[in-house]
User: Fold alpha-1,2-Mannosidase from Halcyon senegalensis.
Amino acid sequence: MYSAAAATASPPRRDFISVTLSPEEAGAAGGYNNSKAWRRRSCWRKWKQLSRLQRSVILFLFVFSAVCGVISYTNMGEPWKSLTNKSLDDQRTEPEIPGLKLANPAVLPAPQKADTNLGDNPELSPQKPPRAPHVRRGPSNLQIKPPRRDVRLKTRHDTSRVVEEPIQADKEEKTEKSIISWRGAVIEPDQSTEPPSSKIKEPEKPSSVEAEDQKEPVPITDRQRAVIEAFRHAWKGYKDFAWGHDELKPLSKSYSEWFGLGLTLIDALDTMWILGLKEEFEEARKWVANDLVFDKNVDVNLFESTIRILGGLLSTYHLSGDSLFLEKAKDIGNRLMPAFNTPSKIPYSDVNIGRGTAHPPRWTSDSTVAEVTSIQLEFRELSRLTGDEKFQKAVDEVMKHVHTLSGKNDGLVPMFINTNSGQFTHLGVYTLGARADSYYEYLLKQWIQGGKKENELLEDYMRAIEGVKKHLLQRSQPKRLTFVGELAHGHFSAKMDHLVCFLPGTLALGAHNGLTADHMKLAEALIETCYQMYAQVETGLSPEIVHFNLHAQKGHKDVEIKPADRHNLLRPETVESLFYMYRFTGDKKYQDWGWEILQNFNKYTRVPTGGYTSINNVQNPSNPEPRDKMESFFLGETLKYMFLLFSDDIDLINLDKYVFNTEAHPLPIWVPA
Ligand code: DMJ
Assistant:
């Protein structure tokens, strides 16, 4: 407290008034003790009593801290904002189950609904319909590619690598991406793949043709030229005597009708494209554009029309980019859908594509297991291209249902399934031949098509191959050929259909895609057997069915043929497997075996006026008894696989980009390697 006397004793200062008032005085004067005014005055007095330097320092400190305050306020803004948002997110991701707290809700993705039927299935985020039609008329020069020096090395390496690679350090992360192991085999998800959903939304220009075109052409080989010649000869017969009809009857120079839909022509479209037969392709395209009509009162078999017609149109669309084929594919796809209107959703075998009605065969309400489980690649692809889920939904439901069914024997399925109950029927008989064959093929191929993510398919496939090893594999005498027999109510039969010869190719494809090396070993053994089914026969052509000798008998070969089984329908399965084996191993013997087979087809089944014919007796070279029928799969499959077998160009239908349907129509892999 300053006294008035002290104040007067100080040197006079211009800037303050020397008034000395004690609080008591003030109180007495104002009658207002400890008032705000008094406090203000007191502060002011104290302020005035400070030296100029002191006041400057205080002012400086005040201004400085004010500036700092403003700066730090603006920097705090963001954390505040994020804190606020974070708490909102927390609220959003909080599970609805009371009391359940997420460990770290802020970083968890929002919970996903598991409701859609397509849920675990790839990514059927349906693809948008293609952009403006990208029409490329006429076959590309796909076959004219430079031979790649690294081809063999690359493919062989690929096959063994995946099997033997140990799990790497990033094991945990990989586990999240669903590594599937099978009795020691590690299947590594392809790290380079992207979820199909992101890939398939923008549909490809329908094929890889453009990229292919930029490469130097690979010259075709003499053997490929021989295939082109054979195709042209077959086509001549079809064109001259069966144009626009289902099948050529080359001897009677006429045709037979099955569905009345130009089956051979459609089945052969993509073969012409691959073989580079521009003129023939153009002519056939015109027929499709002007004469192919599905609005017909006709019963078609769901499976056969799916694999040949729908599959053929889809692959031709992909190779050519011509939207005409997609339009036709959509049309037939829609017309086949009534087949799925059954109590169990297991489709009927037959559909009337004009009336939109479907029914089982007259004598039963069963469908064939292979038929209902080998239409998936095509319908799934149709959904992807059109953006319409209904196709995939229908066929996926069948697979999911079959996955859960009882009546399997270590993964092996019976041959029939009832369309009312959805249960297997005729239990106890197991084969990899007719009525079951392509079930196994499509398990693997759907898994590949969808980017190797649908684990149930892979599980079923792996289990089935174990089932084959356990129940159906045997060795013949005298050559100890490994073959796949049949099991009927516990009894093994040494019977093997030629149809089973798809299996080595499928096993090799699985091994190429990372499955166990055992599968490749088995493939090598089985393709040898399939070749022997030709080589041990008088004409060098396989019969429809063989029986293997289990006991050595003097003068007997491994292969026995019953009179009812000695026909040959120009089937593709062995050539198909030879193609896969050559692609993945580079072993020329497979090409040589295929070459022998082509020569024998030319020798015993070629009809001079055009076309090739099925024969009744592969054991009689002097009279193989022509049957007067050329099946559409001879052009759709057999000659196509021959042409590919004789090529050294792995990009001629690259097996990391395409998967063949069971009628040899290549469809794109959704997530190519
Ligand atoms: C073709 O239609 C298909 O390959 C089918 O999977 C089996 N039968 C014939 C060829 O043999």
Residues 228 and 275 are 7 Å apart (CA to CA). DSSP finds 23 helices and 20 strands in the chain. The longest strand covers residues 545-548.
